[in-house]
Structure of B12-binding domain/radical SAM domain-containing protein:
Amino acid sequence: MKVALVNPFWTYEDSIYFGCRQPHLPLELGYSKALLEADGHQVLMLDGQIQKLDNPALADRVAAFSPAMTVVSTAPTYLFWRCAPPELRVPADFLNRLAVRGGRTVAVGPHGSATPAPTLRKLGVDVVVRGECEEVVAELARRDDWRAVPHTAHLYEGKLVGNGGVHASSFVDHPPLNWPSDWIAAHSHHHHRFDDDQVGFGAEVEASRGCPYNCSFCAKIDFRDAYRRRNHDAIIAEIDRLIGQGVGYIYFIDEIFLPQKALLEALVVRDVKFGVQTRIDLWKPELLELLGAAGCVSIEAGLESLTVEGRAMLAKRCRLGTEELAALLVNARRHIPFVQANLIGVVEDDPALVDYWRKHLIDRGVWANEPVPLYPYPSSPSYRELWGEPDDLAWERAHEHYLASFRTFSDIQEKRPRALAELEATCCSH
C-alpha cells in the first residue's frame, strides 16, 4: 500500500498555542514510517514547516503520490501533543485542499484522542486514531476492514462508532529513526537553547515516554501517560546517526527526563549538546554534575509553583520545600548554562512571595518566568475536575473558560487569542 504521512504547514495567528513555533521533527510520523516500511508499504512523509511547503503544495505532493491512505497530524509533533493548538484550522485547511485525492484519510493527535466525534466532523476524515498513533497507523494499513481496527473511531450515519479506548504504544522497542539529510539540514533551530555556542543542526529525540506523576495541569490522560523507557541501544544508534548528519544539539522531548546514568555516561563521550525537561526534585547533586558533563546546556524544570500550597493544588507530589528546590536549581546552574523554573499562575500563590522567589532565583542565574495562566486541556485532570469527561464541546468549553478567566495571557501571545469558533470558521466546514 502507498501511505502518505503529513505534518501540515502550521500557522498560529490569534491562537493560544503555548508551544514553540519553529519547525521540529514529527516523531509520531517518523515512527509510523518505520513501522509501515517494515511491513513493506511505500511511504511518502511530508512536513510543511521543515520542507517549506504550504498546504496547497503539500496537497499537490500527496495527490501526485496517489496514496491509498493519508495520515495527518493535529499537533505539530509529539513534543507538543500536551499543549496543541486547540483549533483544527490547519489540518482542516490541508484536508480541504487535498479533497478526494488522498485515499482513506486518517487524523492522529490529541484532538481525536480526547474528542473523536467533533474531530471527525470538523476534519471530515474517515477515521481518527485514539491515543499514541504509530502502531495503530500500521494496523490500519494492514487491514482491509479498517473500521474494525482497535483504538480508532469513525462516523456511521452521523453517529460515533468507537473501537476500544485510547492506545498506549509499547514504545520500548521502537527502532532508531532515520531522518532525510535535507530535513536535518533545514533544522537549524536548537529548541529551548539560549547559550551562545550553537554549533550544528538541531534534532529531537525521545528517550522515554509518559510520566509517573499526575499533575492537575498536564494534558496526558489520553496519550503519553504511563511511563516507559526506550531501549538504550536504539537511542544511542539514533543519536549517532544524527551526529553523523551534522547535528550538534538534541532536545529530548520526554515529558520528564528522569536520571538515566547509562545514557548520560554514553553522552559524555559524544560531541553533542542537549536539552531536557525534568523535575528538579528527582536529581541529586552528583547526577546534576554528570548531567552537565554529558553535554546538557538547557533544563526546563517543572516547578510550576513557588509555594507549598500551590504545588499541592497542582498535585505535584513534591516532598521538598521551596528553599530546597531553589538550592537544587542553583546547584544545576553551576553545571548547566541555562536553567529555567517553569511557573504556572496559581491562585494559592501570594504574589509578593512569588516575586521574592523569582528574584532570588534570577539573581543566582536561574530563569523563572512570569507565571503562565493555566489552560484546562480536555486531556488534563484540571478539565475533568471542572466539567467531567470531555464531550463534543470540550475544546470550546476550555477555550471560553481560559479567555474569560484571564486578562493577562502568556508572554508568548502576541495579542488576545480569538474564540475557537472564529479560528475554525473558514476551514472546519465539513
